[in-house]
From TrEMBL:
<dbReference type="InterPro" id="IPR008948">
    <property type="entry name" value="L-Aspartase-like"/>
</dbReference>
<dbReference type="InterPro" id="IPR020557">
    <property type="entry name" value="Fumarate_lyase_CS"/>
</dbReference>
<dbReference type="GO" id="GO:0042450">
    <property type="term" value="P:L-arginine biosynthetic process via ornithine"/>
</dbReference>
<comment type="pathway">
    <text>Amino-acid biosynthesis; L-arginine biosynthesis; N(2)-acetyl-L-ornithine from L-glutamate: step 1/4.</text>
</comment>
<keyword id="KW-0055">Arginine biosynthesis</keyword>
<dbReference type="Pfam" id="PF14698">
    <property type="entry name" value="ASL_C2"/>
</dbReference>
<dbReference type="InterPro" id="IPR011244">
    <property type="entry name" value="ASAL_AGS_AcTrfase"/>
</dbReference>
<keyword id="KW-0963">Cytoplasm</keyword>
<keyword id="KW-0511">Multifunctional enzyme</keyword>
<keyword id="KW-0456">Lyase</keyword>
<dbReference type="InterPro" id="IPR000362">
    <property type="entry name" value="Fumarate_lyase_fam"/>
</dbReference>
<dbReference type="InterPro" id="IPR000182">
    <property type="entry name" value="GNAT_dom"/>
</dbReference>
<comment type="pathway">
    <text>Amino-acid biosynthesis; L-arginine biosynthesis; L-arginine from L-ornithine and carbamoyl phosphate: step 3/3.</text>
</comment>
<comment type="similarity">
    <text>In the N-terminal section; belongs to the lyase 1 family. Argininosuccinate lyase subfamily.</text>
</comment>
<dbReference type="InterPro" id="IPR024083">
    <property type="entry name" value="Fumarase/histidase_N"/>
</dbReference>
<dbReference type="Pfam" id="PF00583">
    <property type="entry name" value="Acetyltransf_1"/>
</dbReference>
<dbReference type="Pfam" id="PF00206">
    <property type="entry name" value="Lyase_1"/>
</dbReference>
């Protein structure tokens, strides 16, 4: 059944109907279409199109339909409806009779499909954000596990300089962090509601579109009806975000395919993500990584297809735009599936540390260190570069590494070379010298390599690089984890508070203050301090809040961490604190304290107990004891933020 038959004398051909109908694709937006319809029913009730009783009946029928669809979405495909909008309206008419025909008053399928698609993108975007954060976490876990493992670094697929496997992992952590930023930016821009734009010129009814947008969970309404119904920038942005991230995943996969090869032998894939050969029983193939690499092409294709579809479309809506969903749905599903598979790959990866170390020691990877050594002897770098090239050529002719050349053999190329040159040619020296921000310094020397060095040489290397490598690596990992926790918090709908949140925060804080769990906050106090509050949302409703109180340069306190009863045990409390820790880090604070009766909760988040009496008097005075608690039970805890080390 179509919704537009009155103008036509004949039915469309079956061939055209099959070509034209989009239900097999857009049925995935059924819940979004129903949610949009419920909001629209309220909107047309507010302008007098339907009365209160009709609103109740329509809403009840739509809620019933929504529950049915959530239980069995495949039922939709049994219909011959043209699209999901037609299907929902047909079902509504069956439930409510002629009343169902009123719902489309003032609305067009043009603004309806634009709204449905944005609602779907918002929901899918949340799933993708979680998948990205989980992928980052998997790479962080692998970096922690292999932070000391020596790995040859490559340029032009030629061995260049040694790095650590953990450093390789953290390179992808950075890539995925940029992917998170792009996705969040895209989700922010698409978070505007087209509903009420009509076919192209806007609805003829005095709908409060901003209120309608808020009801649907959008931050605002679109400003131009013509643009609103013809805009697919959000589809293109999501496809672009997916494409860039899939490029990163493909590089990740390619690295591991090479590392897994018999020629390299650096890693072994888990059986969970590998397959065998139907002919050769000895084979163990890295199929998961090969498929990730291969699937990147179909995601790129979806982006190219959408750009091509949109490039010459006159305003406003054209049926060409029906092609937006199939490629988008497939690309985002593929992206999410590949991220989840990459987590399995990372979790099960076994690194052959002796093989990676042996490879890092080959290929004259320490040639740059010899050049730097000569620079330290007041030889210009270009001249040093030429000298080392000649040394490498001589070593190749002899078939030995640089460090096996005798001092007399080395001095034949430069009389500036002395006995101390050998300490600069070791793997640990090569790694530890890369101690600048973003470098590959590691926590400790590989045990097998460390046994070949004398105790004095090891001490000397530690003195040359300053602080022990282990401390530097731990600082770097902690810094990335702080950011990772903040990303996870944002994914759980934690955000900076706004003035519109004041009443919700006031109700939450005083509910728990009345129970004696926290100190009360006046509404004026919350308004004055709103810029330091963060809130957690569930289904668009504020269910938790927390604040940061700054005492002085470098020091702040986390206060008023509260959650609704029905939002407990869902991770929002931790997310609020982690968000505030990242907020504090960005403000260049150094020490965050809490005064709490539940130290075990904050210990899980990285806080450590401190002597309460060590706190300044003004901090203790600000934190008056609860009349419902024993003051002796309150403890002080601190979290030291990991700030970048100054050069």
């Amino acid at each position: 059944m179509a919704l537009w038959g009155g103008r036509f004398k004949e039915k469309a051909s079956l061939q055209f109907k099959k070509f034209n109908d989009s239900l097999p694709v857009d049925y995935r937006m059924a819940v979004q279409d129903i949610v949009g319809s419920i909001a629209w029913a309220q909107a047309i009730h507010e302008v007098g199109v339907i009365d209160g009783d009709e609103l109740v009946r329509l809403t009840a029928a739509l809620q019933e339909l929504k529950a049915s669809v959530e239980e069995n979405p495949q039922q939709i495909l049994l219909s011959d409806a043209e699209d999901i909008h037609s299907w929902v309206e047909i079902q509504l008419i069956e439930k409510t009779g002629d009343l169902g025909k009123k719902l489309h008053t003032g609305r067009s399928r043009n603004d309806q499909v634009a709204t449905d698609l944005k609602l779907w993108c918002k929901e899918k975007g949340g799933d993708l954000l979680f998948a990205l954060v989980n992928l980052q976490q998997a790479m962080m876990n692998l970096a922690e596990r292999e932070k000391d493992t020596v790995l040859p670094g490559y340029t032009h697929l030629q061995r260049a300089q040694p790095i650590t496997f953990g450093h390789w992992c953290l390179a992808y952590v950075e890539m995925f962090n940029r992917d998170i930023g792009r996705l969040k930016d895209a989700l922010y821009r698409l978070d505007v509601s087209p509903l009420g734009s009509g076919a192209l010129a806007g609805t003829a009814y005095p709908i409060d579109r901003n209120a309608l947008a808020s009801r649907l969970g959008f931050r605002t309404a679109t400003m131009n009806s013509l643009d609103a119904v013809s805009d697919r920038d959000h589809v293109i942005e999501l496809l672009a975000s997916a494409s860039i991230s899939m490029m990163h995943l493909s590089r990740f996969a390619e690295d591991l395919i090479f590392y897994n090869s018999g020629e390299a032998g650096f890693v072994e894939m888990s059986d969970l993500v590998s397959s065998g050969s139907s002919l050769m029983p000895q084979k163990k193939n890295p199929d998961a990584c090969e498929l990730i690499r291969g699937k990147s092409g179909r995601v790129f294709g979806a982006l190219t297809g959408m750009l091509t579809t949109m490039k010459a479309l006159a305003l406003a809506y054209n049926k060409d735009m029906q092609e937006d969903k199939e490629g988008l749905f497939d690309a985002l599903d593929t992206w999410q599936e590949c991220m989840e598979m990459a987590v399995l790959v990372a979790d099960g990866l076994k690194v052959n540390r002796s093989r990676t170390l042996a490879a890092a020691q080959q290929g004259y990877a320490n040639a740059t260190e010899l050049a730097d050594y000569l620079v330290g002897k007041d030889i210009p770098f270009r001249e040093a570069h030429h000298i080392v090239g000649e040394v490498v050529l001589a070593a190749i002719d002899k078939g030995v590494p640089l460090e096996d050349l005798t001092i007399s053999q080395l001095q034949a190329f430069s009389d500036r070379i002395e006995q101390d040159v050998y300490q600069h040619l070791s793997i640990e020296s090569t790694l530890n010298k890369r101690e600048a921000l973003g470098g590959t310094s590691r926590s400790q020397v590989e045990k097998a390599l460390a046994t070949t060095q004398s105790g004095n040489e090891a001490i000397l290397n530690e003195q040359v690089v300053g602080a022990p490598g282990k401390q530097r690596i731990q600082r770097a990992l902690k810094q990335v984890k702080q950011r990772l926790n903040a990303q996870r918090a944002a994914a759980m709908s934690v955000r900076r508070a706004r003035m519109s949140d004041v009443d919700s925060i006031y109700q939450l804080t005083n509910f728990w203050a009345d129970k004696g769990e926290i100190l009360p906050r006046s509404r004026d106090n919350i308004i004055h301090d709103i810029q330091n509050f963060v809130v957690a949302e569930l289904d668009g409703k504020v269910v938790g809040s927390a604040s940061l109180y700054i005492y002085q340069t470098g020091l702040a306190e986390i206060r008023s961490v509260v959650l609704q009863d029905d939002a407990q045990q869902q991770g929002q409390g931790k997310a609020l604190i982690q968000y505030l820790l990242e907020f504090a880090y960005q403000m260049e604070l150094e020490q965050i304290i809490v005064l709490t009766y539940i130290p075990q909760y904050f210990q899980q988040l990285g806080f450590n107990l401190i002597d309460k009496s060590s706190l300044a008097d003004n901090i203790i005075e600000d934190s008056e004891p609860s009349p419902h608690k024993d003051p002796a039970d309150e403890v002080a805890m601190e979290y030291i933020l990991s700030q970048p080390q100054q050069a």
